[in-house]
Write a structure and sequence with these properties.
Blueprint: H1 2-17, H2 22-29, H3 40-60, H4 65-99, H5 106-166, H6 169-172, H7 178-221
Helix pairs in contact: 2-7, 3-5, 4-5, 4-7, 5-7
Length: about 230
């Protein structure tokens, strides 16, 4: 008999430790962020993801897209300018060679070589910049995934809240009072409203991270100045 009681107590502990009561919902209704989630396991998972979102935001803050775009655009303009100069010099060489066949064009060739060297140096700088922007693509990708994961956990919370609202006995026990049922429903409604508003904000930020990731990739691929 003692063994049976011990066994029943053992299996009951995890059930009790993860159950929610009316106070859990009231507390959540007065909170914000992940603490809006009254379900312990889901809230803990969401809190961990929220920490990851913050880390990714901190990483993303180290990159300034406008600065990268301005610098690369200037580099590409400089390359175009020097390539145009090379084409102009080549035309001068052709004209000079027709008129003065006995003279060398080595001085023109030196001007071309000088510009080609400058272009090589600029391309090297662009390569370094592109490598840094590849890091930005990865960072914003991780931020996007973290934000999407957090939003999904809030959506799971909404689903579980709907279940709790339709089956209040799971929270309040058998034969709950009308006041308790009303209090639970009010708490759930408040939580749902705040989570739904938060999800909209999360989706905007999520889409923003995804767009910025695409912006960096497009800037990496850009080969002509705007």
């Amino acid at each position: 008999m003692k063994k049976i009681l011990f066994y029943l107590l053992f299996i009951a502990v995890p059930i009790l430790s993860y159950s929610q009561n009316l106070n859990d919902f009231k507390t959540a209704a007065s909170a914000d962020g992940v603490n809006l989630i009254p379900f312990t396991d889901l809230r803990q998972e969401a809190a961990s993801i929220a920490d990851d979102v913050q880390r990714r935001k901190d990483e993303a803050a180290a990159f300034n897209y406008e600065t990268f775009e301005s610098q690369k655009n200037n580099f590409l303009k400089d390359i175009k300018k020097r390539n145009d100069e090379i084409e102009s010099i080549k035309k001068d060489i052709a004209d000079f060679s027709k008129r003065y066949t006995e003279f060398s064009t080595s001085c023109f060739d030196a001007e071309i070589d000088k510009r080609k060297k400058a272009i090589d140096e600029i391309n090297s700088k662009i390569k370094d910049m592109n490598d840094k922007m590849k890091d930005a693509v990865e960072v914003f990708g991780r931020l996007y995934n973290a934000r999407a994961g957090l939003r999904e956990h809030f959506e799971k919370a909404l689903s579980q809240l709907s279940d709790a609202k339709s089956s209040p006995n799971r929270i309040l026990g058998d034969s709950p009072s009308d006041d308790d049922k009303k209090s639970l429903e009010e708490a759930i409604n408040k939580i749902q409203d705040q989570i739904q508003a938060g999800i909209q904000g999360h989706k905007v930020q999520e889409d923003g991270a995804k767009k910025r990731q695409a912006d960096y990739q497009a800037l990496i691929d850009r080969t002509e100045a705007k």
